[in-house]
Design brief:
This protein has 149 residues and is an alpha+beta fold. 39% of the residues lie in helices and 17% in strands. 18% of the residues are buried. The structure holds zinc ion (2 copies).
């Protein structure tokens, strides 16, 4: 499991580019980094609103996209929609098919695999992503096996 402590802080880079880190932006960033299950914009909105009741979903969404464009967050397209990831380092994901949570898992070193693909196809591989699917530990302990349960 990769913890948020390992994430390089890009706030200095943000400030250097002259963007003011407004209260909502700071809060949105904190909420995403504190969550370890890759929240959707709607989930981030609900959590931010607890501390900032006047904030709108549009503001949260716009700031999420902006923070992602600046490299403070990662955006991940998932079956259930766009998810936001506070962990911007290299890692893979495990999606629980029962509860829908998305967990971070350490990235496997795949240099050999990249070389093989390059040799076979002539592609220059710059990045890759591995997605794992199954049942998470909590769901296994509860004996849950149905996706709807
Ligand atoms: Zn689960
Ligand atoms: Zn992640």
């Amino acid at each position: 499991m990769i913890t948020n402590k390992m994430i390089p802080d890009n706030l200095d880079a943000l400030r250097a580019r002259g963007r003011r880190l407004t209260r909502p932006r700071r809060l949105i960033l904190d909420v995403v980094r504190a969550a370890d299950t890759h929240p959707t914009a709607a989930v981030v909105y609900r959590r931010v609103r607890r501390r900032l009741p006047r904030v709108s979903l549009a503001t949260v969404y716009r700031n999420l996209r902006m923070l992602a464009a600046e490299g403070c967050l990662a955006e991940r397209a998932h079956a259930g929609g766009l998810r936001f990831d506070g962990n911007t380092g290299p890692h893979d994901h495990f999606t629980c098919l029962v509860c829908g949570r998305i967990y971070d898992v350490p990235a496997r070193a795949e240099r050999g695999g990249r070389r093989r693909i390059a040799a076979r196809t002539g592609f220059e591989v710059l990045d890759h992503r591995t997605e794992y699917y199954g049942r998470c530990g909590a769901c296994r302990r509860r004996g849950r096996s149905s996706v709807t349960g």
